[in-house]
Design brief:
single chain; 403 residues; alpha/beta; Immunoglobulin-like; eight-stranded parallel β-sheet; four-stranded antiparallel β-sheet; 21% strand; globular; binds zinc ion
């Protein structure tokens, strides 16, 4: 009884946790990876000390008076949530993983500054692993139960308050987290209709832009694929409405039609490339210089087998080449860290998964049409395919946030 508390006594524990709050941990930095552009959510408030003073300098002729030195004005900055674990609607949260709320500023750990509850009731213990991060350890969560976390108020150390109450639902054992992973192959202008066999894997340049516009209009936050992997495997927080952009095969026209658009908007993406394509001399595909430039620009590279092969039944020697050599070569020649794989032709087996794990892969993508991602599916993640000439409403209907 003395170890289990109800939410109504959470405030007391928050007080204790606030007093015991540790020094900032590296977690604070890890919540804002350099390559992620979703900082649109988190305009950094200027430090109070940087506020320009409008006070005129005292005139040299003025009678010097022993005036008090004015203290810097601490402008209250509105509080909002940058990231959370889980995200709203995740019905397959990692058992035992703490809930995490990452705010845009150091927070006031005073329990009176928080109004937090979970329904149905869960025992909660709170800590502040970083000044802007609240971690909530809960008692056992019942699989199949939908919980609702509500944050009515929160106060930052600047004195600013939460802009609007937050509420999100989560559970365990359900269909997963709504994280759409968009799958592109070609972004190219093929004229009125794409060549046979390409149409369902291609978007026109204008369609690609419209698709990104749709994500922005729905307040989605495009995150790196590896951030999604960290979320699913480690309970690392993500921004609200996360989405992922991927390209298979390394088709050269994406350099012209997709990469500049992504860079203008500061959006991350992962390119899955077979090394054989890069060294073939075929100018339809990225070469090593292209791949090096993409990696240097902050894009992620992933494995797609050395020769774009069927990988569902590789012998150990074949796996050594198709998966091992492939990963090593991309990493050596581009400096990228290759941790995710996309199954060529969507084909895989349990054996493939074991082989990927053997060579150090952490996740893999299928061509299965799903937007809900589960920790247990980390080597079977689903994607959304766009087709040439598809109306924008087709994508809208597949996204989880359409009103
Ligand atoms: Zn492919």
């Amino acid at each position: 009884m003395n170890r289990i508390i109800c939410t109504s006594t959470l405030l007391l524990l928050l007080a204790l946790a606030g007093c015991l709050a540790a020094a900032p941990l590296p977690e604070a930095a890890s919540t804002a990876p350099a390559a992620t552009p979703m900082l649109v959510l988190s305009p950094t408030s200027p430090p109070a000390t940087a506020t320009p003073s409008a006070t005129p300098m005292p005139s040299a002729t003025a009678t010097p008076a022993p005036t008090e030195i004015p203290s810097p004005t601490l402008l209250p900055q509105p509080v909002h949530l940058l990231r959370s674990y889980p995200i709203d609607g995740d019905s397959d949260v990692l058992p035992g993983a703490p809930l995490r709320l990452v705010f845009n500023q150091p927070m006031d750990p005073d329990p009176a500054a928080l109004g937090l509850s979970v329904s149905p009731e869960l025992s909660l213990t709170a800590e502040w692993p970083a000044p802007n991060t609240l971690a909530l350890h809960t008692g056992p969560r019942r699989p199949g139960t939908e919980y609702r976390l509500t944050l009515q108020r929160a106060r930052g150390q600047s004195g600013g308050m939460l802009e609007q109450p937050l509420a999100f639902t989560f559970g365990e054992g359900g269909r997963g987290a709504p994280i759409p992973i968009l799958m592109y192959h070609h972004v190219d202008d093929f004229g009125p209709s794409a060549p046979a066999g390409v149409g369902e894997w291609a978007s026109r340049p204008g369609e690609f832009v419209a698709q990104l516009d749709l994500l922005a209009g729905l307040s989605a936050h495009v995150v790196r694929l590896i951030e999604t992997v960290d979320y699913l495997t480690e309970g690392a927080p993500l921004p609200a409405r996360p989405a992922v952009i991927t390209f298979d095969d390394g088709n050269k026209p994406t350099l012209q039609y997709a990469v500049p658009v992504l860079q203008e908007r500061g959006l991350p993406a992962t390119f899955f490339v077979p090394p054989q394509y890069a060294e073939s001399g075929n100018d339809k595909f990225f070469n090593w210089e292209d791949l090096k430039a993409l990696a240097a620009a902050g894009f992620d590279l992933g494995g797609h087998s050395y020769q774009h092969s069927f990988v569902q039944d590789l012998t150990p020697a074949e796996a050594e080449h198709q998966i091992g050599d492939e990963k090593r070569k991309i990493e050596e020649l581009t400096g990228a860290q290759v941790e995710c794989f996309a199954y060529p032709f969507g084909s895989y087996s349990d054996k493939t998964v074991q082989q990927l794990q053997h060579y150090g892969y952490r996740a893999a993508l299928t061509v299965e049409q799903r937007i809900y991602q589960k920790p247990g599916d980390i080597f079977h993640l689903g994607r959304i395919r766009m087709g040439y000439g598809d109306p924008i409403d087709k994508l809208r209907s597949k996204l989880p946030w359409s009103e």
